[in-house]
Amino acid sequence: MNHRFLLFSALVASSTGIFLVSPISAKISISNRPHISQISQQPNVSNLITLDNRSQNILERQERPDWASFFDRVEAQGTIVVLDQRGGAQQLWVYDQERADTAYSPASTFKIPHSLFALDAGVVRDEFQVFEWDGVERDFAPHNQDQTLRSAMRNSAVWVYEIFAAEIGEAKAREYLTQIDYGNADPSTREGAYWIDGALAISAQEQIHFLQKLYQNELPFRVEHQRLVKDMMIVEAERDWILRAKTGWEGRWGWWVGWVEWPTGPVFFALNIDTPNRLDDLYKREAITRAILQSIDALPAEEDRQ
User: In this structure, how many other beta carbons lie within 10 angstroms of the beta carbon of residue 72?
Assistant: First the structure.
């Protein structure tokens, strides 16, 4: 698909419908660009990103080589895209643009759209329907129990979503993926889950595009289903902000994607990093993203929270 990504303007927090109160899976290409650790360096204006057809304005994509310091401090290689729309602004920042345009398997970040597919197809009725554990002992203890849609999302219980995939089928999945313009929209696989071990791939830039549509309830699904999935994405919240996000891990790389909702508008993010040390690298997904969000006042530091 075209990697230009269409940005929606004039977003406000109330548009979500929720009021704020308190791998074959393959990397298509890869960049080994050196990191730059000059924190004081100003962002470089690069590619021009066109807004959607409701606006003829042009948004400048700004590269942030200074954000290398956040990756370097935890010895990580990766990319992050941040779109800040607070106060009607359109600030689009990226660290490592080449990698931000490179498609990777979405891994468990795909549970966001996959939940919508399952709800729409009637494979799951609601967040309370129980899926009985199949008795297979898996490495992650929370997987070894009955699950609901909410717990399967929270625990990244792949076996539940494999049930969804089998019942939806490849043809219908391809139709859904095409409708929402998700990555390469290819659910084929030789073996294993297509969002982990198959052909499906999406870039960090494309993740942001998808998240914007979900935030606005503009995906081709019932609004109540979109609101439910957004509710299941809540990681933490305070009186005036909500953090909604989902992790993903393919084994060789990991994701953290989502947004922080403020009364003045959302701040979207999509991070992708290499995980050569596997489990030992997983904390870096959130650590890097949180540090970057805090550096732009998009997420309060721990000591500043109420």
Answer: 14
pTM for the predicted model, two decimal places: 0.82
Superfamily of domain 13-304: DD-peptidase/beta-lactamase superfamily (3.40.710.10)
Q: Can you tell me the distance from the alpha carbon of 221 to that of 216, in angstroms, rounded to the nearest whole number?
A: 12
What's the burial of 34, exposed, middle or buried (CB within 10 Å: 0-12/13-18/19+)?
exposed
**DSSP three-state, residue 104:** strand
> Residues 295, 300, 301, CA angle at the centre, nearest 5°?
75
pLDDT at residue number 140: 84
Under 8 Å between Cβ of 273 and 285: yes
Give the list of residues 6+ apart from residue 97 with CB closer than 8 angstroms, or none: 46, 47, 61, 63, 79
- Amino acid at position 197, single letter: D
The one-letter amino acid code at 288 reads: I
Q: Which active-site residues does the annotation give? A: 108
Among residues 105, 81, 71, 85, the alpha carbon closest in space to that of 13 is found at 85
Q: Kindly report the three-state secondary structure assignment for every residue of 140-156.
A: CHHHCCCECHHHHHHHC
Q: Quote the CA–CA distance of 24 and 154 in Å, as a whole number.
A: 26
DSSP state of 123: S
The predicted pLDDT at position 84 comes to 97
**105 with 120: CB under 8 angstroms?**
no
> Mind listing the pLDDT tens digit for each residue in 162-201?
999 999 999 999 999 999 999 999 999 999 999 999 999 9
User: Bridge-partner residues for 273, per DSSP?
Assistant: 78, 254
Contact 288, 71 (CB under 8 A): yes
Query: Which of 60, 67, 2, 15 has the alpha carbon at shortest distance from 36?
Result: 67
Domain ranges of the chain: 13-304
Q: At how many degrees (to 10) do helices 111-121 and 158-168 cross?
A: 50
In angstroms, the CA 188 to CA 103 distance is: 16
Give how far Cα 209 sits from Cα of 52, 60, 147, 218, 305, Å: 11, 16, 30, 11, 29
